[in-house]
Design goal:
Helices cover about 40% and strands about 20% of the residues. By secondary structure, the protein is of the alpha/beta class. It has two domains: about 140 residues, Four Helix Bundle (Hemerythrin (Met), subunit A); about 200 residues, Rossmann fold, CATH 3.40.50.10470. Strands 6-5-4-7-10-15-16 form a seven-stranded mixed sheet, sandwiched between helices. Helix 2 runs antiparallel to helix 3. The chain is globular. The protein starts with a strand and ends with a helix. The protein binds 5-S-methyl-1-O-phosphono-5-thio-D-ribulose (MRU). 5-S-methyl-1-O-phosphono-5-thio-D-ribulose binds next to helix 2 and strand 9.
Length: about 350
Amino acid sequence: MFSPIEWHIAANGPVVRMLDQTRLPHEVVWVDCPDHQTVAKGIKDLWVRGAPAIGIAAAMGLALGARAIKAGSYDDFVRQLKPIHDTLAATRPTAVNLFWALNRMNTVVRIHKDRTVEEIKERLIQEARAVHEEDIRRNVAMGGHGARLIHAGDTILTHCNTGALATGGHGTALGVIFSAWESGKRIKVLVDETRPVLQGSRLTMWELQQNKIPATLITDSMAGAFMKKGGIRLCLVGADRIAANGDTANKIGTYSVAVLARAHKIPFYVAAPTSTIDFSIAHGDQIPIEERNPDEVTNVFGKVRIAPANVEVANPAFDVTPAKYITGIITEQGIFKPGELKRKLGGKK
Ligand code: MRU
């Protein structure tokens, strides 16, 4: 199973190895992060991105940081671990998987209070690897559930990148498409380019091409016209954080797709593991939205400037789609209506 991130044992000790996704599709370059600061930089600078993959990177980053601590006591270890945790937690605010994974790591530290520091470090490495492996299992299960919604001959519109690149492997929304394809359903994918960072054109098109799945790239502003023309059977996107009521934060532009889908009576599904559901947040307006560097909007690939100098720019990386526009949420535990999440999954994460 292809994964964009791994806990790798290099000559000088363990590293977090990640595919630098900022260089795709031109180059396939793997980066070895020897310490938690480099992992944090990798998350912030989008070498690794996509909610589940960010969570895995944070867990591995914490395990790497913990390994380097020299502490004589449990309390000393916990004191030194705090700034490592905080550095990783400060990288990207929207994807809840980051905080979910760090909380899992904190729990490991707490419940092994009576162990030696060296044993706790080992447990943290095991937990980070478990976060990775479980994500793959969840995605494959999600793919199986979601594939039931897809029929041979369907054209599916997707936004951003939700494939193996965005996760531990297989993917969420794109994982559903992969599962449908693997089960023999001949389908087509319409891919929003996903301005400003172009995860659709650079990453989703690359993954679909690798898997030989027919796909057409469109600019984000073309989605409505294609829906009006007819032929799109389903919209399928991922999520960075789902509130308890089903409101869903995902890549900027997702909200527009959902409203357009409703106007054209096209089902709009979100695919996400339960680790992306934040039951502590009642509504989507409480989800923190990351504001990124204006250069992402004024420049293409950080190289070609496409706006005059000194223009005012807004660059929210995510938007929130109200639950009322979402037909269903595909998780590893099945497909739910947004309003069913709390009752059927609350507390069962
Ligand atoms: O800024 P990114 O590339 O991390 O944003 C990614 C998305 O919005 C994805 O759609 C989401 O994380 C789901 S990934 C399985």
